[in-house]
Design a protein that fits this description.
Layout: H1 2-141, H2 145-193, E1 206-208, H3 213-219, H4 224-233, E2 236-238, E3 245-249, H5 253-269, H6 274-302, H7 310-318, E4 323-324, E5 327-328, H8 329-346, H9 351-359, H10 375-385, H11 390-398, H12 408-422, H13 431-446, E6 451-457, E7 462-467, H14 474-491, E8 499-503
Helix pairs in contact: 1-2, 2-8, 2-14, 4-6, 5-6, 6-7, 8-9, 8-12, 9-11, 9-12, 10-11, 11-12
Length: about 525
């Protein structure tokens, strides 16, 4: 019994222990399950929160991107609005300008229409007046239509003379104010930069002989020596009663120089006979040809003109023996070359080309007896023949204002030619030519209506014209002054320029008694 109780107790104790152990294990399992559940809940919460954060961040990024796009769109819209506003302003301005122009155009059209109507009326009135005048003239004077027309044109010209004179005064004042100072400055600068000696040469081909016996030896037996000399040189030898002098004449200055030098050598040598004459003349010709070429080279070198043809150099050297109004033509050509070059540089042109034009402008004077035509045409032909540029050709052809200038160098050469020729001592005229030129100036000016007195002063470089103040007013006096200057330029030949001064005064005289 006790054993059974013990077993029962042991069984109960074992069962209780098992039950307790099971309870403990269950409790422990529940605890672990709760921990696992809590961990799972925390992890789920963490995942949920992370998902929410990621969702919020993604939403935030999208919102920022949308905001940026919206800002860019707003900026584009603002820029477009500004551009549209500017375009609208420009369109408004253009529309306003178009409206103003349309208004001005309409006003101009109205004004033109009024002027055209007025012109039509005046034209009709003038035609009617002219018709009435023509009819009256034909009826009263019984003139032919041509005579009546001439009389009417003369009357119209007299009526318009005052207006023409006023226009002349107006434009002369404008041109004088704008051009005189510049022209004076350019010319003065060029003249001051090149100061040439103011001298003129007197070239007379005369040969001094020691005694009158030498004249007989020059003539020779029955004139054979002088005939041989004239035949060899192509000049005329004048042996007259003038003591101590034999005169050599000829149209060719180089031949005359050859004859002069050869005759001087024959006189020094003393052996004068036909054979010796031919030898001396031949030697002199050869030496003079070389001398002429050297003179041409020196002139080209002095003027700083390069590339000239040898024939042109020969012609330049021949100008040394040519004079015009007692002015040495070669020295004159050098002066014109320097002045033309200086003037060209002053106004911005090629100074070298200007010097070339000036140096060759009178080259025709070296060959005008060999070729037909005046020296301008001959010089132009020589320049064309030996390959000179068109500016040089035209300067040689037109430096005397014979034709319209095609290049500015022609005008500059003409101005330099006038400066060189008109400076003191450059030209010499005979008293007869001088007086005749003054008389021509005075008589030409006296032929104009309203002119009372004319005085030529300053060696014919200026004329003073006194007009009747009762016949001519100031405007008509200006027209008369211009007409006189044009007539002088067209009808007379003179060196340099002629200044025309018209004087008009009104005098009132009363006597106190």
């Amino acid at each position: 019994m006790s054993g059974f109780v013990g077993l029962l107790v042991g069984a109960l104790v074992g069962t209780g222990a098992v039950f307790l152990v099971g309870r403990l294990r269950a409790h422990e399992a529940r605890g672990r399950a709760e921990l696992i559940l809590m961990d799972a809940r925390r992890e789920a919460e963490t995942i949920r929160r992370q998902a929410e954060l990621q969702t919020k961040e993604e939403a935030l990024r999208r919102r920022e991107a949308l905001d940026a796009e919206a800002d860019a769109s707003r900026r584009d819209l603002r820029d477009q609005e500004k551009r549209l506003e500017k375009r609208a302003d420009l369109l408004d301005q253009k529309l306003e300008l178009i409206n103003r122009k349309e208004h001005d155009f309409e006003a101009l059209q109205r004004q033109l229409a009024e002027q055209q109507e007025e012109l039509r009326q005046r034209h009709a009135e003038v035609k009617q007046v002219l018709a009435d005048q023509v009819e009256t003239l034909q009826r009263i004077c019984r003139l032919a239509p041509e005579e009546a027309r001439d009389l009417l044109l003369k009357r119209v010209e007299e009526e318009l003379r005052g207006e023409v004179g006023s226009l002349i005064l107006k434009y002369q004042a404008v041109l004088r104010e704008s051009c005189q100072n510049r022209a004076r400055e350019v010319l003065t600068t060029a003249i001051q930069r090149y100061a040439a000696p103011h001298t003129a040469e007197v070239t007379v081909s005369t040969v001094d002989i020691p005694n009158d016996e030498m004249k007989g030896r020059i003539i020779g037996r029955e004139g054979r020596n002088i005939r041989a000399f004239e035949k060899a040189t192509g000049v005329d030898v004048i042996v007259d009663d003038t003591p101590g002098v034999v005169i050599v004449t000829g149209f060719d200055s180089v031949r005359r120089e050859v004859a002069k030098v050869a005759l001087e050598r024959l006189i020094q040598d003393g052996r004068i006979h036909p054979t010796r004459i031919e030898e001396i003349v031949k030697e002199t010709q050869e030496e003079l040809e070389e001398h002429v070429h050297r003179l041409g080279q020196q002139a080209a070198l002095e003027a700083n003109v390069v590339g000239l043809h040898d024939k042109l150099l020969d012609y330049l050297g021949r100008l040394h023996f040519r004079t015009s109004y007692s002015q040495n033509v070669l020295r004159h050509s050098l002066e014109v070359a320097f002045l033309t070059g200086l003037l060209a540089e002053e106004i911005g042109l090629d100074g070298a080309l200007g010097r070339r034009c000036g140096l060759l402008h009178d080259i025709g004077k070296a060959a005008d007896h060999e070729m037909e035509g005046g020296h301008p045409a001959v010089g132009a032909e020589l320049a064309r023949r030996y390959g000179e540029p068109k500016e040089v050709i035209h300067a040689a052809l037109g430096h005397h204002d014979d034709l319209r200038a095609e290049t500015p160098y022609t005008i500059l050469v003409a101005a330099a030619d006038a400066i060189s020729a008109s400076r003191p001592g450059a030209w010499r005229e005979t008293l007869e030519k001088y007086v005749r030129r003054l008389e021509e100036l005075e008589s030409l000016a006296l032929g104009f209506p309203g002119v009372e007195q004319v005085y030529a002063i300053q060696a014919g470089r200026e004329i003073r014209v006194i007009v009747d103040s009762q016949q001519l007013d100031d405007a008509e006096s200006a027209k008369v002054c211009r007409d006189i200057a044009r007539s002088i330029q067209r009808e007379l030949t003179y060196p340099g320029e002629v200044k025309v001064t018209v004087l008009r005064e009104t005098r009132t005289i009363e006597f106190a008694r």
